[in-house]
Amino acid sequence: MKTRIFIPALFCFIINNINAQKSILGFKSSDTEIKNEKIFDAQLSAQRIGENIKKLSSVPHHVGSVGGKMVASEIESVFKQAGWDTKIETYQLMFPTPITRTLEMNGATNYKAKLKETPLKEDATSNQADQLPTYNCWSADGDVTANLVFVNYGLPEDYETLAKYGIDVKGKIVIAKYGRSWRGIKPKVAQEHGAIGCLIYSDPIDDGYGAGDAYPIGAFKNDQTVQRGSIMDMVIYPGDPTTPNQPSIEGAIRVDHNDAKNLLKIPVLPISYGDATPLLKDMEGPVAPKNWVGGLPFAYHIGPSKSQVHLKLAFDWKIRPGLNVIATIKGSEFPDQWVIRGNHHDGWVNGAADPISGMAAELDEAIAIGALLKQGWKPKRTLVYCAWDAEEPGLMGSTEWVENHAAELQAKAVAYINSDGNGRGFLGAEGSHAFAPLITEISKTVIDPQTGVSVFERSKAARATTASTPAAKKEAFESKAYPLGAMGSGSDYSSFIQHLGVPSLNIGYGGEDEGGEYHSIYDSYDMYKRFKDPTFAYGVTLAQTTGRVVMRLANADALQFDFTELHKTVKGYINELINNVNQLREKTKIENELVNNKAYIYAADPTEKLTTPKVLAEVPFVDFTPIQNALVHFEKAAASSETLKAKADAVKLAAINQKIFTAEQQLLSTNGLPRRPWFKHSLYAPGFYTGYGVKTVPGVREAIEQKNWNEVNEQVNEVAKAIERLSVYLEAL
């Protein structure tokens, strides 16, 4: 049974005040907007959202499949019936699927892996034809045989632990647990350390009977469930690997996939914990550290294995059509200012949770907006609603569309609002921090269907309940602003914000919808209705939230960018980086004292001494003055822009609006990030070794983590220049 957060009744007074809201950010008069939002809300239907989830997840619908074409056609039909000008834009995308998958162990243990999930009578779509087999997309072809080494979660720090044990993975196949990072990081780090193959499994302590009852009794992984997924090195660049920086249209010039810089060179395969069990039981070598031990009923050893593992994989490397559905309503006053909304429609199999739950909410928004149109409502700015294909293999549909329309988007895109999977629970929002006040305001007007309070209050109570200290609990309860997160990667916003500098938001609900269906055959309507959002109420909640963002941006007198909030956020990031350097300096000093005093650490076996650590290089002084000076200028420029907006008449506001939505582009670096120039935003990027996880001020932060002090100084100056450009731009509004 899942833990629920119960909100004290005193919070319920908020409900009575929501409808009495007198003003809305960006509007001279808010009465009409509030009225239209009430009409919009009344058109949303939980029943219809459930019906669309069932329909669109009724068949497997991966890129290029018959089901994928059917889903795109159904989505196109819904948009058209709602009154939107709709078309399908097709891109020619490389999408490899398996020809050969063999995994076997020979020697002391003889085992041939099943590599197949079990159809269940409780799950009506789990036995369908046209299901993609269990595999990691963008694995290299390969036929390798070697001993196996267990590498925990396969993170860089895990290899540091292996080095202390004197264990080298060069020439070996590694097996890593899913979790603690994006899946593609595990084979990436393994390849860097010389491994010739990589297996990834979900350990039951993380996602199986250690977390809750296994499916179909409960929501978590059974012993044959496998997480499919891309291992493209998206932190280099997303999209079609064969057309970097160019759209994958008919006749596009392509690089050979073997030469693509964001594809790995070793074979990689995901397996179930049922298939992993005999492989892990065969391991010899040291007993694994306690924090490496999983939930299987035997002692975990690091290896190498007694027996040899044979891994053979081959793929078809075909070009397949990716179908983006694009629906538009032309703005009545500012047709060349676009508010863009998107969710992907492709799934690894049936994809009820990921992505159809989010797609169904977006479709209901479109239907509700269509009803408003029939009543005479018109958006001032153009609305562009998108259903992306090929997100799962590497954000391909959205990235190719963005690369194809880059110049127009940088001139016209006011904002991009993204969603993906959705479920029961708490509001999650991340994005451009100039939008922080907008998200706070909207979160206080949307009611949580489970508790009856605003989603802002429920989110605040959840943060307070899970806070680790009394001070943190007090801070959460006293918070008057929603803590907008920063954007990493893993969904379709990446190309908009991190490549083009288009202000973006990513919004969804979850936290009480945990389960192990992710990217498996069990991500089905039956699973979703039982464990994710049984009444589909949170589909309506998502539609209300993102719908308000869309409508308020579309009709605002003054676009709701508050760069004073961005300044506060960036100042916090820089203070954090300064502290990180100081802490690293102190940690290095302590570790070197331990080495010099011969205070060596021992292994689990007291007779086995770990490798002697080396003396670390001292951490030099880092001069953050260029950024700190730029932030002083930015603070004044941001405050000035707010004053200017407050005093402006309608004509002046229109002129400010025309410039302000492109302001974030000033934060783009001409040369991009070191070793990955596709990513240009100086404040937000996925981490080089985190994948989905964000690294804020990434050029500086990652150089510090890598102890590349020359690069730290270079990136400090680059970020300072970007902040200075933004300040000058805001002063010229």
Please explain how this structure is put together.
- The chain is of the alpha/beta class and 733 residues long.
- It has three domains: 269 residues, 3-Layer(aba) Sandwich (Aminopeptidase); 218 residues, Glucose Oxidase, domain 1, CATH 3.50.30.30; 168 residues, Up-down Bundle (Transcription Elongation Factor S-II, Chain A).
- The chain is 38% helix and 15% strand.
- It contains 22 helices and 18 strands.
- The protein has a seven-stranded mixed beta sheet with strand order 1-11-13-12-14-16-15, sandwiched between helices. A seven-stranded mixed beta sheet has the order 3-2-10-5-6-7-9.
- Helix 3 packs across helix 9, helix 4 runs parallel beside helix 9 and helix 13 packs antiparallel against helix 14.
- The termini are far apart.
How are the elements arranged and paired?
Blueprint: H1 13-18, H2 31-43, H3 46-56, H4 66-81, E1 85-94, E2 98-106, E3 111-112, E4 136-137, E5 142-150, H5 156-164, E6 173-177, H6 185-192, E7 197-201, H7 204-207, E8 229-230, E9 268-271, H8 273-281, E10 308-315, E11 319-329, E12 334-344, H9 352-374, E13 381-388, H10 396-404, H11 406-412, E14 413-418, E15 425-431, H12 436-443, H13 455-466, H14 470-478, H15 494-500, E16 504-511, H16 525-531, H17 537-555, H18 563-596, H19 625-647, H20 650-660, E17 684-686, E18 694-696, H21 698-705, H22 709-731
Parallel strand pairs: 4-8, 5-6, 6-7, 7-9, 12-13, 12-14, 14-16
Antiparallel strand pairs: 1-11, 2-3, 2-10, 5-10, 11-13, 15-16, 17-18
